[in-house]
Design a protein that fits this description.
The protein is of the alpha+beta class. It is about 50% helix and about 15% strand. It folds into two domains: about 35 residues; about 60 residues, Arc Repressor Mutant, subunit A, CATH 1.10.10.10.
Amino acid sequence: MLDNNDITNDLVCDDLDFELAMDLVNWFLMHTVKIFGQLPDKPKQYNELKTIVQKLYDSLPNKFTYQEALKAGESLKIPNGTVQKYLAKLKKVELILAEAHGKYSKTEGIN
C-alpha cells in the first residue's frame, strides 16, 4: 500500500464500510457536543490561573472589598501577602477590576 510514501494502489470503500465510518463520525460528533455542553462558562482568562488562584476567585462575590478577599484567603489558608499578589494577577488577566481603593468587582472576561 504505502511504500516510501508512494500510493501504488487505489483504496476502495464499499457502502457498508462507508456507513459504519459515518456512524462512528456521527457518534463522536454527538459525544463531543455533549461534553462541550458540560464545560464551565468561565472566561478564557480563567484558564490562565492556577488552582489555588481559581479557588480564591470562585470564593469571592461579584463585588467585594480587599478585607473580604483577605477573609476568603484566610479560609483557604492563603497568607495575606499572597492574596494581594493573587488580586494583582486577577487584575492583570482582567478577571477583576479595582473600582475604588479597596473595592473590586469581577468582570466577564474583558478582552
